[in-house]
Design a protein that fits this description.
Layout (H helix, E strand, L loop, with lengths): L1 H12 L9 E5 L13 E7 L2 E6 L4 E5 L7 E4 L4 E6 L5 E5 L4 E4 L7 E4 L6 E5 L7 E5 L3 E6 L2 E7 L7 E3 L6 E6 L2 E6 L2 E2 L10 E6 L5 E5 L4 E4 L5 E4 L11 E4 L5 E4 L3 E4 L7 E3 L9 E8 L2 E6 L3 E7 L2 H4 L8 E2 L10 E8 L3 E8 L5 E10 L2 E8 L6 E8 L4 E8 L2
Antiparallel strand pairs: 1-28, 2-3, 3-4, 4-5, 6-7, 7-8, 8-9, 10-11, 11-12, 12-13, 14-15, 15-16, 16-17, 18-19, 19-20, 20-21, 22-23, 23-24, 24-25, 26-27, 27-28, 29-30, 30-33, 31-32, 31-34, 34-35
Length: 406
């Protein structure tokens, strides 16, 4: 009897355990407004649940105040490449012809503050808590910006500046474009820092020591002191342009190309994310509010979010059957990706054959869980020509053709 009473008291006094939260990737593209002038989304910025998405060519900004569940259209007089918000109400938008706008009401009204910047604006960044930041753009131009002006123009004589980052104060910043990375220190732009020749599309510093840059050929480079850059391995076998990187801290960052990449160990390993999302369009920008709220945008109005899954997303059905997809790209030069879907856990073999029927490679041979799977094939050791790839799960066999051109 005493034991029963003790158990009852413990049940009353001890707090009830909360159910574990489940996080994953969700495709929210259907939530975007239907706007005929928008072939894609080229930037994303969030403050809490408020977000601003700029379009590739249309003169509008898509605005949400509920984490992307619905959007309003903010009309603009020119196309906008970037939005940067100081808080949920005050921020900047900039784009074509050097136009820079400022808002104090989340974008309900955007006021033109300058047309003095001599090129299209490609990047905006502000140090935490600062009222002064940097913009950069085509033809190597960089300038400071505040709520009422653009000033201290500098011509770095570079073909184009694509991104700028000032993580701690207005006294230090990094900018990339073309094949260079430049460092701004106490009023002076220092010599080029680029560790590897190539085209740099993006750069993001977590602080004045740690940061990443990315660009052509799937290249990702990393610094731990703000000036020495080291290349890191990228699992993307297609070597697509790394179009954007966002660092959460010195260890964790996201990168996008035609896939989503994520590192939690400072870039020692980058892994592909969002494998449950059927994204076939190039991804352009990534922004993280925190580690549980990450947004990705891209061509064909792609809009994805990593966040807490609701009951609806958790019960999203697995593939309805077994299928083998056409490889991408096709034809291909050296490397291509092959995707197959499984409705149940299966023993899988995926083999490559030449036109003589000879097996030249086995890409998969083992047990795979239900879901979508993508495997890369590197044909560089083989001759150009037609090849066949065959999926065999025991009870299902399918073969498709692909063309390799050196």
């Amino acid at each position: 009897m005493k034991i029963k009473i003790l158990i009852i008291l413990l049940m009353i006094l001890l707090p009830t355990a909360l159910p574990a939260q489940t996080y994953g990737w969700m495709d929210l593209s259907d939530n975007l407004p239907d706007h005929s002038g928008s072939p894609g989304i080229n930037s994303v910025f969030f403050v809490g649940e408020k977000g601003w998405l700029t379009t590739c060519t249309a003169t509008v900004i898509f605005y949400t105040d509920n984490a992307g569940q619905s959007f309003e259209i903010q009309e603009m007089p020119t196309s906008i490449n970037e939005v940067y918000m100081l808080d949920e109400n005050r921020g900047f938008a900039a784009g074509s012809s050097g136009a820079v706008f400022y808002t104090e009401n989340s974008g309900a009204n955007w006021n033109l503050i300058s047309l003095s910047f001599p090129s299209n604006v490609r990047g905006i960044d502000f140090p935490p808590g600062s009222e002064v930041g940097f913009i950069c753009g085509d033809n190597g131009w960089v300038a400071k910006v505040c709520a009422d002006s653009v000033y201290e123009l500098a011509d770095l004589a570079v073909a184009g500046m694509t991104a700028i980052s000032c993580p701690e104060s207005i006294n230090q910043a990094w900018v990339c474009g073309g094949s260079i990375i430049r460092h701004y220190l106490n009023g002076e732009w220092l010599a080029d820092q680029s560790a590897t020749l190539g085209y740099w599309a993006t750069l993001h510093m977590y602080d004045n020591s740690f940061g990443w840059a990315g660009g052509d050929g799937g290249m990702i480079i990393h610094t731990e002191n703000g000036y020495n850059w080291v290349r890191q391995d990228n699992p993307d076998t297609l070597e697509s342009v790394v179009s954007n990187i966002f660092s959460l801290d010195s260890l964790q960052a996201y990168a996008v190309s035609h896939i989503v990449l994520h590192t939690t160990d400072g870039g020692v390993t980058w892994v592909e994310e969002a494998q449950n999302i059927d994204y076939h369009h190039f991804l352009i920008d990534v922004f993280a509010v925190d580690e549980h709220n990450v947004y990705v945008v891209g061509q064909e109005n792609t809009f994805m979010k990593y966040g807490e899954l609701t009951g609806i997303e958790e019960t999203t059905p697995l593939p309805s059957g077994i299928s083998l997809h056409q490889n991408y790209p096709n034809p291909f030069n050296a490397k291509t990706s092959i995707r197959f879907d499984l409705d149940i856990q299966s023993q899988v073999t995926l083999d490559i054959y030449n036109v003589l029927g000879e097996r030249v490679s086995t890409l998969a041979d083992g047990i795979y869980p239900a879901g979508n799977h993508t495997i890369s094939f590197d044909a560089s050791p083989y001759a150009s020509g037609v090849y066949f790839y065959k999926l065999d799960t025991g009870g299902y066999i399918e073969t498709k053709t692909m063309l390799f051109i050196k």
